[in-house]
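Here comes a specimen:
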Amino acid sequence: MQPSPTYAEAACAALAEAMARDERVVVVGEDVGRGGIFGQYRGLQQRFGAARVIDAPISESTIMGAGVGMALAGCRPVVEMRVIDFALCAIDEIANQAAKNRFMFGGQGRVPLVARMPMGVWSASAAQHSQSLEAWFVHLPGLVVAAPSTAADNAALLRAAIDCDDPVVYLEHKELWGTRDDAPAAEPPLALGRARVRRAGRDLTVVSWSRQLHWALDAARELAGDGIDAEVIDLATLWPWDRDTVFESAARTGRLLVTHEAVQVAGLGGEIAAAAAEALGCRVARAGAPRIPVGYAPTLEDEARVRPAAIAAAARRLLG
Protein backbone atom coordinates (compact mmCIF):
# COMPACT_ATOMS: atom_id res chain seq x y z
CA MET A 1 0.00 0.00 0.00
CA GLN A 2 1.36 3.40 -1.02
CA PRO A 3 1.92 5.83 1.86
CA SER A 4 -0.16 8.98 1.85
CA PRO A 5 1.60 12.02 0.36
CA THR A 6 3.60 14.31 2.58
CA TYR A 7 2.56 17.89 3.19
CA ALA A 8 5.08 18.99 0.50
CA GLU A 9 4.08 16.26 -1.99
CA ALA A 10 0.39 17.07 -1.65
CA ALA A 11 1.00 20.73 -2.39
CA CYS A 12 3.27 19.89 -5.34
CA ALA A 13 0.62 17.61 -6.83
CA ALA A 14 -2.06 20.27 -6.41
CA LEU A 15 0.12 22.86 -8.11
CA ALA A 16 0.93 20.48 -10.97
CA GLU A 17 -2.79 19.85 -11.45
CA ALA A 18 -3.48 23.59 -11.57
CA MET A 19 -0.65 24.19 -14.06
CA ALA A 20 -1.87 21.39 -16.32
CA ARG A 21 -5.40 22.77 -16.22
CA ASP A 22 -4.57 26.45 -16.76
CA GLU A 23 -1.52 27.71 -18.67
CA ARG A 24 -1.82 31.08 -16.90
CA VAL A 25 -0.54 29.47 -13.69
CA VAL A 26 3.19 30.13 -13.40
CA VAL A 27 5.76 29.83 -10.62
CA VAL A 28 8.52 32.34 -9.84
CA GLY A 29 11.10 32.28 -7.05
CA GLU A 30 14.54 31.24 -5.88
CA ASP A 31 15.47 27.56 -6.32
CA VAL A 32 12.10 26.55 -7.75
CA GLY A 33 13.78 24.89 -10.74
CA ARG A 34 15.55 22.40 -8.50
CA GLY A 35 12.36 21.71 -6.57
CA GLY A 36 12.46 24.30 -3.81
CA ILE A 37 14.24 23.96 -0.49
CA PHE A 38 11.43 21.79 0.90
CA GLY A 39 10.68 19.82 -2.30
CA GLN A 40 7.39 21.64 -2.83
CA TYR A 41 8.19 22.19 -6.55
CA ARG A 42 9.93 18.89 -7.27
CA GLY A 43 9.74 17.92 -10.95
CA LEU A 44 7.64 20.89 -12.05
CA GLN A 45 10.28 22.67 -14.15
CA GLN A 46 11.11 19.42 -15.91
CA ARG A 47 7.43 18.94 -16.72
CA PHE A 48 6.32 22.49 -17.55
CA GLY A 49 9.56 24.15 -18.62
CA ALA A 50 11.65 27.07 -17.42
CA ALA A 51 9.24 29.62 -18.92
CA ARG A 52 6.53 28.58 -16.43
CA VAL A 53 8.68 27.55 -13.45
CA ILE A 54 10.97 30.54 -13.36
CA ASP A 55 14.18 30.66 -11.34
CA ALA A 56 14.78 34.14 -9.97
CA PRO A 57 17.81 35.92 -8.51
CA ILE A 58 18.08 36.52 -4.76
CA SER A 59 15.90 39.64 -4.58
CA GLU A 60 12.58 39.15 -2.85
CA SER A 61 11.27 42.60 -3.79
CA THR A 62 12.03 41.89 -7.46
CA ILE A 63 10.38 38.46 -7.27
CA MET A 64 7.21 39.80 -5.65
CA GLY A 65 7.13 42.84 -7.93
CA ALA A 66 7.38 40.57 -10.97
CA GLY A 67 4.58 38.42 -9.56
CA VAL A 68 2.30 41.43 -9.11
CA GLY A 69 3.03 42.52 -12.68
CA MET A 70 2.34 39.01 -14.00
CA ALA A 71 -0.98 38.92 -12.16
CA LEU A 72 -2.05 42.32 -13.50
CA ALA A 73 -1.11 41.15 -17.01
CA GLY A 74 -3.40 38.11 -16.80
CA CYS A 75 -1.29 35.34 -15.27
CA ARG A 76 -2.00 33.53 -12.01
CA PRO A 77 1.47 33.48 -10.43
CA VAL A 78 2.59 31.38 -7.49
CA VAL A 79 5.36 33.43 -5.90
CA GLU A 80 7.88 31.63 -3.69
CA MET A 81 9.40 33.59 -0.80
CA ARG A 82 11.46 30.66 0.62
CA VAL A 83 10.53 31.58 4.22
CA ILE A 84 8.21 34.21 5.67
CA ASP A 85 11.16 35.98 7.27
CA PHE A 86 12.57 36.83 3.82
CA ALA A 87 9.18 38.09 2.60
CA LEU A 88 9.77 41.19 4.71
CA CYS A 89 12.17 42.30 1.97
CA ALA A 90 9.13 42.45 -0.32
CA ILE A 91 6.68 44.08 2.08
CA ASP A 92 6.04 47.14 -0.10
CA GLU A 93 5.07 45.00 -3.09
CA ILE A 94 2.74 42.93 -0.87
CA ALA A 95 1.21 45.64 1.28
CA ASN A 96 1.09 48.61 -1.10
CA GLN A 97 0.78 46.97 -4.51
CA ALA A 98 -0.79 43.49 -4.39
CA ALA A 99 -3.19 44.22 -1.53
CA LYS A 100 -4.43 47.60 -2.74
CA ASN A 101 -4.54 47.55 -6.54
CA ARG A 102 -8.11 46.30 -6.84
CA PHE A 103 -9.39 49.03 -4.53
CA MET A 104 -7.31 51.95 -5.78
CA PHE A 105 -8.28 51.41 -9.42
CA GLY A 106 -11.96 50.66 -9.03
CA GLY A 107 -11.64 46.95 -9.70
CA GLN A 108 -10.04 47.46 -13.12
CA GLY A 109 -6.99 45.50 -12.00
CA ARG A 110 -6.98 42.25 -10.03
CA VAL A 111 -3.98 40.52 -8.48
CA PRO A 112 -4.73 36.76 -8.43
CA LEU A 113 -1.40 35.93 -6.85
CA VAL A 114 -0.41 33.25 -4.31
CA ALA A 115 2.52 34.26 -2.11
CA ARG A 116 3.93 31.12 -0.48
CA MET A 117 5.69 32.04 2.75
CA PRO A 118 6.79 29.08 4.90
CA MET A 119 6.19 30.15 8.50
CA GLY A 120 7.01 29.17 12.05
CA VAL A 121 9.83 27.94 14.25
CA TRP A 122 12.37 25.98 12.21
CA SER A 123 14.52 23.87 14.52
CA ALA A 124 18.08 25.18 15.02
CA SER A 125 17.50 28.02 12.55
CA ALA A 126 17.37 30.94 14.99
CA ALA A 127 15.55 34.25 14.99
CA GLN A 128 15.71 35.23 11.30
CA HIS A 129 14.31 31.91 10.05
CA SER A 130 11.68 31.08 12.68
CA GLN A 131 9.02 33.77 12.72
CA SER A 132 5.23 33.45 12.71
CA LEU A 133 4.00 36.72 11.24
CA GLU A 134 0.47 35.83 10.19
CA ALA A 135 -1.02 38.75 12.17
CA TRP A 136 0.92 41.21 9.98
CA PHE A 137 -0.84 39.99 6.86
CA VAL A 138 -4.28 39.51 8.43
CA HIS A 139 -4.05 43.18 9.43
CA LEU A 140 -3.70 44.31 5.78
CA PRO A 141 -7.00 44.92 3.92
CA GLY A 142 -7.07 43.27 0.51
CA LEU A 143 -5.23 40.07 1.42
CA VAL A 144 -6.60 36.57 1.96
CA VAL A 145 -4.49 34.57 4.45
CA ALA A 146 -4.41 30.76 4.72
CA ALA A 147 -2.42 28.39 6.97
CA PRO A 148 -3.13 24.68 6.38
CA SER A 149 -2.21 22.13 9.06
CA THR A 150 -2.45 18.83 7.15
CA ALA A 151 -1.30 17.44 3.81
CA ALA A 152 -4.86 17.03 2.52
CA ASP A 153 -5.79 20.57 3.45
CA ASN A 154 -2.54 21.90 1.98
CA ALA A 155 -3.55 20.46 -1.38
CA ALA A 156 -7.15 21.67 -1.18
CA LEU A 157 -6.35 25.18 0.05
CA LEU A 158 -3.54 25.66 -2.47
CA ARG A 159 -5.96 24.81 -5.28
CA ALA A 160 -8.47 27.26 -3.85
CA ALA A 161 -5.80 29.94 -3.42
CA ILE A 162 -4.70 29.61 -7.07
CA ASP A 163 -8.33 29.96 -8.17
CA CYS A 164 -8.92 33.01 -5.95
CA ASP A 165 -9.08 36.37 -7.75
CA ASP A 166 -7.47 38.21 -4.84
CA PRO A 167 -3.89 37.94 -3.51
CA VAL A 168 -3.49 35.07 -1.05
CA VAL A 169 -0.71 34.96 1.54
CA TYR A 170 -0.20 31.23 1.85
CA LEU A 171 1.54 30.05 5.03
CA GLU A 172 2.93 26.51 5.15
CA HIS A 173 4.78 25.53 8.30
CA LYS A 174 8.49 24.83 7.93
CA GLU A 175 8.26 21.74 10.15
CA LEU A 176 5.23 20.18 8.45
CA TRP A 177 6.78 19.57 5.00
CA GLY A 178 7.74 15.93 5.65
CA THR A 179 4.64 15.00 7.66
CA ARG A 180 1.88 12.69 6.44
CA ASP A 181 -1.76 12.60 7.48
CA ASP A 182 -2.64 9.81 9.89
CA ALA A 183 -5.41 8.48 7.66
CA PRO A 184 -6.99 9.39 4.32
CA ALA A 185 -9.23 12.42 4.79
CA ALA A 186 -12.89 11.48 4.96
CA GLU A 187 -14.02 15.11 4.95
CA PRO A 188 -14.77 17.08 1.78
CA PRO A 189 -11.94 19.32 0.54
CA LEU A 190 -11.56 22.44 2.63
CA ALA A 191 -12.49 25.78 1.06
CA LEU A 192 -11.03 29.19 1.79
CA GLY A 193 -12.88 30.81 4.67
CA ARG A 194 -13.96 27.54 6.26
CA ALA A 195 -12.65 26.02 9.49
CA ARG A 196 -12.65 22.36 10.41
CA VAL A 197 -13.62 20.80 13.74
CA ARG A 198 -10.79 18.36 14.43
CA ARG A 199 -12.12 17.09 17.75
CA ALA A 200 -15.63 17.43 19.18
CA GLY A 201 -16.02 18.39 22.84
CA ARG A 202 -18.35 20.02 25.35
CA ASP A 203 -16.29 21.77 28.05
CA LEU A 204 -14.31 24.39 26.12
CA THR A 205 -13.39 25.39 22.59
CA VAL A 206 -9.74 25.48 21.50
CA VAL A 207 -8.93 27.30 18.24
CA SER A 208 -5.58 26.97 16.48
CA TRP A 209 -3.97 26.54 13.06
CA SER A 210 -0.85 25.29 11.27
CA ARG A 211 1.72 23.34 13.33
CA GLN A 212 0.22 24.54 16.60
CA LEU A 213 -3.05 22.76 15.79
CA HIS A 214 -1.33 19.40 16.31
CA TRP A 215 -0.12 20.45 19.76
CA ALA A 216 -3.63 21.67 20.58
CA LEU A 217 -4.89 18.16 19.79
CA ASP A 218 -2.17 16.69 22.02
CA ALA A 219 -3.27 19.04 24.80
CA ALA A 220 -6.89 17.95 24.33
CA ARG A 221 -5.83 14.32 24.79
CA GLU A 222 -3.99 15.28 27.97
CA LEU A 223 -7.06 17.13 29.25
CA ALA A 224 -9.27 14.14 28.47
CA GLY A 225 -7.25 12.18 31.03
CA ASP A 226 -8.54 14.65 33.64
CA GLY A 227 -12.13 14.33 32.43
CA ILE A 228 -12.04 17.62 30.48
CA ASP A 229 -13.64 17.41 27.03
CA ALA A 230 -12.11 20.00 24.68
CA GLU A 231 -13.40 20.78 21.20
CA VAL A 232 -10.53 21.65 18.83
CA ILE A 233 -11.07 23.80 15.74
CA ASP A 234 -8.54 24.16 12.94
CA LEU A 235 -9.06 27.70 11.64
CA ALA A 236 -7.13 26.98 8.37
CA THR A 237 -8.06 30.32 6.76
CA LEU A 238 -6.96 33.21 8.95
CA TRP A 239 -8.70 35.85 6.86
CA PRO A 240 -11.57 35.68 6.32
CA TRP A 241 -11.83 33.42 9.38
CA ASP A 242 -14.83 31.19 9.95
CA ARG A 243 -16.77 33.05 12.64
CA ASP A 244 -19.82 30.80 12.30
CA THR A 245 -17.95 27.63 13.24
CA VAL A 246 -15.98 29.27 16.06
CA PHE A 247 -18.96 31.14 17.51
CA GLU A 248 -21.27 28.13 17.37
CA SER A 249 -18.76 26.07 19.32
CA ALA A 250 -17.89 28.80 21.84
CA ALA A 251 -21.57 29.56 22.45
CA ARG A 252 -22.14 25.89 23.25
CA THR A 253 -19.10 25.42 25.51
CA GLY A 254 -19.06 28.91 27.04
CA ARG A 255 -15.25 29.09 26.95
CA LEU A 256 -12.78 29.85 24.16
CA LEU A 257 -9.00 29.36 24.19
CA VAL A 258 -6.97 30.48 21.17
CA THR A 259 -3.43 29.15 20.88
CA HIS A 260 -0.81 30.01 18.27
CA GLU A 261 2.92 29.70 17.75
CA ALA A 262 3.22 33.41 17.08
CA VAL A 263 4.11 35.92 19.78
CA GLN A 264 1.03 36.44 21.93
CA VAL A 265 1.38 40.24 22.08
CA ALA A 266 -0.83 41.72 19.32
CA GLY A 267 -1.29 38.24 17.84
CA LEU A 268 -4.30 37.01 15.89
CA GLY A 269 -5.51 35.16 18.99
CA GLY A 270 -6.41 38.49 20.57
CA GLU A 271 -8.66 39.40 17.63
CA ILE A 272 -10.48 36.06 17.70
CA ALA A 273 -10.89 36.12 21.47
CA ALA A 274 -12.16 39.72 21.47
CA ALA A 275 -14.62 39.04 18.64
CA ALA A 276 -16.04 36.02 20.48
CA ALA A 277 -16.26 37.89 23.81
CA GLU A 278 -18.08 40.80 22.15
CA ALA A 279 -20.49 38.58 20.23
CA LEU A 280 -21.17 35.91 22.86
CA GLY A 281 -19.99 37.12 26.24
CA CYS A 282 -18.09 33.84 26.69
CA ARG A 283 -14.94 33.50 28.78
CA VAL A 284 -11.79 33.77 26.65
CA ALA A 285 -8.07 33.11 27.02
CA ARG A 286 -4.92 32.97 24.87
CA ALA A 287 -1.82 30.81 24.78
CA GLY A 288 0.91 32.30 22.60
CA ALA A 289 4.66 32.66 22.53
CA PRO A 290 6.55 35.17 24.70
CA ARG A 291 7.74 38.37 23.04
CA ILE A 292 11.29 37.17 22.44
CA PRO A 293 13.35 36.32 19.34
CA VAL A 294 13.63 32.57 18.76
CA GLY A 295 17.01 31.41 20.05
CA TYR A 296 19.42 29.11 18.25
CA ALA A 297 20.34 27.01 21.28
CA PRO A 298 17.74 24.27 21.89
CA THR A 299 17.06 25.51 25.43
CA LEU A 300 16.40 29.04 24.18
CA GLU A 301 14.38 27.83 21.21
CA ASP A 302 12.19 25.81 23.53
CA GLU A 303 11.30 28.97 25.46
CA ALA A 304 9.62 30.29 22.30
CA ARG A 305 7.50 27.18 21.72
CA VAL A 306 3.98 26.84 23.13
CA ARG A 307 3.91 23.13 23.88
CA PRO A 308 0.90 20.93 24.69
CA ALA A 309 1.50 21.19 28.43
CA ALA A 310 1.28 24.99 28.25
CA ILE A 311 -1.94 24.79 26.22
CA ALA A 312 -3.45 22.31 28.70
CA ALA A 313 -2.45 24.56 31.60
CA ALA A 314 -4.12 27.57 29.94
CA ALA A 315 -7.27 25.48 29.44
CA ARG A 316 -7.33 24.48 33.10
CA ARG A 317 -6.99 28.13 34.17
CA LEU A 318 -9.85 29.08 31.86
CA LEU A 319 -12.02 26.36 33.38
CA GLY A 320 -11.19 27.80 36.81
